[in-house]
Amino acid sequence: MTGQADRRLVLAGMGATLAAGTLWGRARAAEPTRRFGYAVVGLGSYATNQIMPRLAECEHARLTALVSGTPEKLERYGSEYGIPATHRYSYAQFDRIRDNPDIDIVYVILPNSMHAEYSIRAAQAGKHVMCEKPMAVSAAEAEAMIAACRQAGTKLMIGYRSHFEPYNLHAMEVARSGVLGPTRIITSEHGFYAQPNQWRLHRPLSGGGSLMDIGIYALNAARYLAGEEPVEVSAMEQTDKSDPRFATVEDRIDFHLRFPGGALASCVSSYNSNHNAYRVHGQGGWLRAEPATSYTGHQMWVHRDGETQQVRLPTPAKNQFVAQLDHLPEAIMAGTEPRASGEEGLRDMRLIEAIYQSAREGRAIKLTA
Ligand code: NAD
Q: Is the pTM of this model over 0.70?
């Protein structure tokens, strides 16, 4: 391929192709389709502002039930979304979802320490599971979730929306295609200023600090940009314990990943500074994304042959939320593993545990496959 044609491919084509779903496959068009019913569990900020409004835009999904501990929320959102009283559940009534044929999938959008319990109970009720990131608060919990879904014969998917976002798909393709040369350095930074008095800062509910909540984006991106699994991690934590926000969780934690192909990733996770960016440096160029994993407004640049060009991808027919919500029904219909599977979530949980161990023990941790 010529340099020019090569560059055009990088800058215009591949992200769009990937966004259309060809990398991992999708439900065949000829298959009969229907709109699968989602029960949303936990009517907090992400559920009500991002997910519930997007279900109406889906091709293969719709909102059919709500689960909340707050009767006023069930009433308010039930009325707003036309969910009848028979399809509104308290946490105590949760297991009754088993008897509701309008519920195909349970979407768990609760504080992290509740993910495993509600995912497992959903599987035991015979429902497919979509669970928010982080998948759980330990690798052991993540393994139990996978086992429960396997035993029930239901699918498990994690809410890694960036796996459905065109710029991120483009970055994966560019980084892995070799057009920048072999990847040598990845930097991946994610952080925000955490306001006090929220469950994210309370370890029994969050399972940890910035790494569990926002640093997981830096970790997941480093892995999908590298296109392989790290073999070694090292980490350093900085937490001001006199700050009441950090009585039980960490603030900043920097970590490094060594990949078998020779790439190193340098990652930032912070509850005290704003970051949302990554870079991939090959021997012959670089790719930069900032904001990289935001809800909207992604920006990306590629530098090759001494020239920097901004990447501009067409607006996809489905935004990342809609594509993610439609993907699990597509996987169910096609009988395939979802793209952001439970195994994918488990890999992050194992790495998070190794990162914490490295910071605690002040040494690098070698990883087994
Ligand atoms: P939130 O605080 O806005 O909502 C949490 C919900 O859980 C609330 O409705 C709350 O009432 C309910 N809840 C039930 N039991 C609770 C308890 N014991 N303590 C506190 N709340 C309880 O949080 P959120 O931002 O919506 O986050 C929920 C989940 O979604 C988290 O796992 C988070 O990591 C994830 N999330 C993902 C994204 C993404 O982009 N994928 C974005 C935001 C949040």
A: yes
